[in-house]
Amino acid sequence: MNELRYTLLSDGSSDQALIPILTWTLRSQGVQVAIQSQWADLSRLPSSRRSLSHKIALSLDLYPCDLLFVHRDAEREPHQVRLSEIRQAVENLPDTLPPIVCVIPVRMQEAWLLFDEGALRVAAGNEHGRQLLTLPPLAHAEQMADPKSALYDLLREASGLSGRRRRKFRVEVAARRVAEFIDDFSPLRRLSAFNAFESEVRDVIEAQKWHLNSPPV
Description:
By secondary structure, this protein is α/β, with parallel strands linked by helices. The protein has 2 domains: about 5-105 and about 190-210, Response regulator (Rossmann fold); about 110-180, no CATH class. It is about 40% helix and about 10% strand. The chain has helices at about 20-30, 50-60, 80-90, 115-125, 145-160, 165-170, 170-175, 190-210, and strands at about 5-10, 35-40, 65-70, 100-105. The chain has a 4-stranded parallel β-sheet, sandwiched between helices. Strand 3, helix 3 and strand 4 (about 100-105) form a beta-alpha-beta unit. Helix 2 packs across helix 3 and helix 5 (about 145-160) crosses helix 7 (about 170-175). The radius of gyration is 18 Å and the shape is globular.
């Protein structure tokens, strides 16, 4: 095995921010070969009201991979509810599937992007800014009612912009880039949802023996 290809299936394009986290987790759990990531963009296909089973099948057909990550924000539901939804959707599909890992941040994925002040400043286009940024304690991120709004507010403040320029600031684009500027996601291990995700990744890697593969010479 010279490379590991994975696909991320998520609810929207903003969830592509998870890709650096997924890649880092695979690396931290021992995958040494080249990693190729792709996001399953189903938005241009007809019929937006598809079942999750159908979306998974489409993703695997259009974006072939060795590993599929299925992302669902927990939002107001318990983590276990979302987990059961994904597993039930998989049960309705043929057995010849690649491994599937559930990615279920509590509330929403933005809660996993609120711990690195430097990354926020770079993503906001103001790396050397001195604006005071009050990041929430990471241990409390899973209890936040609206982590997306918190992330957006921090990025606007980090940008140092005001008036018309601040109103025109593309905060959604900046939010999507935050994870690109984080080298170490290990602080997320303080969060129960991330621990559950990382444990599932570890189990898949060990079952597939991907941690025993060496990079090509």
